[in-house]
Write a structure and sequence with these properties.
Rossmann fold, 2 domains, 6-stranded mixed sheet, 4-stranded parallel sheet, about 35% helix, binds guanosine-5'-diphosphate, transferase
């Protein structure tokens, strides 16, 4: 509306410290410049180098995007002849990384950001397969040129790309169909970077393989993993990465806020909910509940764990068992709004009742809200995914976060927010763990399935002990994260 566009204009930082570029049409994507009205200013400023690389990327994208002359020429290489494998691709003006949708929405955002960082590091252009709803959920992130892969892209039979595809880099290495010394290279390669990838697929993340990959105009990847931490272990990217991110824990925080702007439909869900339930509280607490337990939720042990966590860490106050009304002047009562996200409503009911049935010992008023309870994950169902995105984003507008182990849904919220959440440990044998939760060391997402093979020596290594800024994750012990 007019009032909010005026508020945005008066806001000096609608470009998020130079992360975003000016000049987009505001109405076609309200969230891009209005996010400053809802989210606290980030204490993490993007480096001026990151800002200039983003502007440079935007120019490249404009020059190479869908249906540009360079795009058309590079696409021709995919069409010319049946024997793609023996065709020498030759140098091209524009090189691409195509991202194929896979897994839930949280995973999708993490992998798009990973692919985009790879594109920045290797001067490629990122194009995304729209799947069922990428175009419906997100605004275009780059000025004047779409990031959606055209529907008439010649290799659009994406479901044939999977672990066993002969076109995958891993399989081509296995059959010696490709090597750096060949002067005949294919015009495209499929990179299988899903959690079920094998040691050969993982060579994508080796320094030695980058010079070969650089010669391939089209890289097509399917991934459900946040592979950013492993890019930091590739020595030829080291300098560039430290210029881009002098603070290494801000990768998704910056790239996520740069790339993912809710579409107007989703922005409506976010802002209506925020205004109605969260805006007026003195503090907002987000609790993201995602269980991977057998049986029918809600689980008593998970409920116990959540309550133990927020009481022990003094995130929410105790209730007074005597039920005597506490006499404080109502005028100076602090209020907290608790935003719960979960596929189920059981936890919400219990926490809401807890604060309704008894007074808090501090006199604070606690409002408890949950936007939806979808019961089942229904990835690619349009309205379901809109709600999922709206809820991830709403969580990112809170001041304090509690998240669940293993969940990329929570990772996205924490990184966009710029918060280090308390993470609920995964219960074992249907028992609440003690301690129930733990404050994590950085807001970066966890790479759940990183390679553990040393690229040169081909022996297993502890990749969490190689450099001080990469550690195993708090919630996934084999995982890796930037700290
Ligand atoms: P992860 O599986 O926890 O890593 O997160 P993903 O986002 O990749 O996949 C889980 C999917 O389940 C989400 O994308 C939603 O479709 C659905 N989902 C899980 N938790 C919630 C929730 O709290 N709210 C809503 N609306 N959907 C959820």
């Amino acid at each position: 509306g007019d009032a909010s566009s005026q508020a945005v204009d008066e806001h000096k930082d609608k470009l998020l410290d130079g992360l975003l570029s000016a000049g987009f049409d505001e109405k076609s994507c309200l969230s891009r410049y209005q996010s400053v009205l809802y989210r606290r200013p980030s204490p993490h400023k993007p480096s001026s180098y990151l800002q200039s690389r983003l502007r440079k990327y935007e120019d490249l994208h404009k020059q190479c995007g869908p249906y540009t002359e360079s795009y058309n020429k590079t696409v021709e290489k995919l069409k010319s002849g049946h024997h793609l494998w023996t065709l020498y691709s030759g140098p091209t003006e524009c090189n691409y990384i195509v991202w194929i949708a896979s897994s839930g929405l949280g995973n999708k955002l993490l992998t798009v950001a990973s692919a985009f960082l790879y594109a920045l590091l290797t001067n490629r252009v990122l194009l995304v397969d729209r799947g069922k709803d990428m175009g419906d959920l997100f605004c275009e992130p780059f000025p004047e040129m779409s990031w959606l892969l055209p529907l008439d892209f010649p290799l659009n039979q994406f479901n044939k790309f999977e672990r066993r595809s002969p076109e995958s880099y891993g399989n081509m290495l296995k059959t010696n169909a490709i090597s750096n010394t060949m002067n005949s290279l294919p015009p495209f390669l499929y990179l299988h970077l899903n959690h079920d990838y094998d040691d050969q697929d993982k060579r994508f993340l080796c320094d030695q393989d980058q010079s070969l990959l650089q010669k391939i105009p089209w890289l097509i990847t399917r991934s459900n993993e946040y592979f950013v931490p492993s890019l930091f272990l590739i020595s030829s990217f080291e300098q560039e990465l430290s210029n881009l991110f002098p603070s290494k824990v801000t990768v998704f925080h910056h790239l996520g806020r740069y790339l993912f702007h809710p579409s107007n439909a989703v922005w409506g869900l976010i802002t209506r909910y925020y205004e109605a339930y969260l805006a007026n509280a003195d503090e907002r607490v987000g609790i993201q509940i995602r269980t991977f337990e057998h049986g029918t939720p809600p689980f008593q042990h998970v409920m116990d764990q959540i309550v133990a966590c927020f009481l022990k860490e003094k995130i929410l106050p105790e209730v007074d068992p005597s039920q005597e009304p506490i006499l404080t002047a109502s005028g100076n009562r602090k209020s907290k709004a608790v935003l719960i996200t979960s596929l189920h409503s059981g936890y919400f009911d219990k926490i809401r009742n807890m604060y309704w049935e008894k007074p808090t010992v501090t006199g604070e008023t606690i409002g408890v809200y949950q936007p939806s309870h979808e019961e089942l994950q229904q990835t690619e169902n349009n309205f379901h995914d809109r709600k999922a995105w709206a809820e991830m984003y709403l969580l990112s507008l809170t001041d304090v976060l509690i998240t669940s182990s293993w969940s990329t849904f929570g990772y996205v919220a924490q990184s966009l927010a710029g918060l280090k959440p308390w993470i609920l440990y995964r219960p074992e044998n249907h028992t609440a763990p003690d301690p129930p939760c733990h404050r994590i060391v950085s807001m970066e997402p966890c790479f759940h399935a990183p390679p553990s093979l040393d690229c040169r020596a081909k022996t297993r290594i502890d990749n969490g002990a190689l450099v001080p800024h990469i550690r195993h994750c708090e919630d996934v012990s084999v995982g890796l994260k930037l700290v």
